[in-house]
Amino acid sequence: MPTLFISYRREDSSDIAGRLFDSLEDHFGEDSVYFDVDSIPFGADYRDHIRDYIKKTQVLIAIIGPKWASVEYTKGPKAGTRRIEDPEDLLRIELETALNHGVRVYPVLVSGAKMPSVEELPSSLRQLNSLNAPEMPQGRAFRQSVEHLLLHLESLLPNDARIPYGEARVKAINALKLKINIDGEFNAGSLTLAAGLLKESSDIEG
Q: Taking a C-beta distance cutoff of 8 angstroms, is the pair 115, 31 a contact?
């Protein structure tokens, strides 16, 4: 069962979501990240399928771009209605399920997006507005932001879901050292992880 679930809107952040999925899967392992509705079996109710997956997930990563809350239906009886206002909107179902079942929601702002205001969100999602969200810039800073995200996600996951010893963990240690040298930006959870990883670093190098 996937440890991480990526929630995104295709019209808003498809490219970045794909790049982030590749990084997460490389770091945490194959089948550890649920990424796309394309994996829903034919004939299955997509709402029930998604809800069942998310209830067993440790962290839902909500990728929020500039059009995340403003994308509208363009055809049919709902044309002109923002999709986030529709109770059947898949992205809304994903977030509601996570928030209602105690799954950690980790919003990530991309492409210069800002966190949607309370007024832009349906009442069931207004808790999202109070969550702290890192910004993930594009360009050369993207890779460094992903490395920091990977380390922070590790601090949120149970021990048996973290990456094993080996090349991936050595990369994480090296990324951590680089981050400390650059700006030392860590919260309490990351500092706890930092201490553990740096201790491992001395064991690996020694």
A: no
Alpha helices in 68-140 (DSSP H): 90-100
Mean pLDDT per 10-residue run, the chain (206 residues)? Answer: 87 93 88 78 86 92 97 95 96 96 95 96 96 88 87 78 50 54 46 50 49
CA distance 176 to 182: 10
Residues 6+ apart with CB under 8 A from 117: 129
Structure tokens belonging to residue 104: 């950690």
The phi and psi torsions of 112 (rounded to 5 degrees) equal: 80, 10
Instruction: Give the Cα separation of 124 and 114 in Å (integer).
Output: 19
CA distance 137 to 28: 22
Q: At what angle do helices 167-182 and 141-156 cross, to 10 degrees?
A: 110
Helix, coil or strand: residue 62: strand
What's the pTM? 0.77
Rounded Cα distance between 91 and 87, Å, is 10
Chain Cα centroid distance, residue 19: 12
At position 94, the amino acid (one-letter code) is: E
Sheet holding 59-64, edge to edge: 33-34, 4-7, 59-64, 104-110, 135-136
CA distance 98 to 80: 27
Considering only CA atoms, which of 110, 93, 76 is closest in space to residue 84?
93
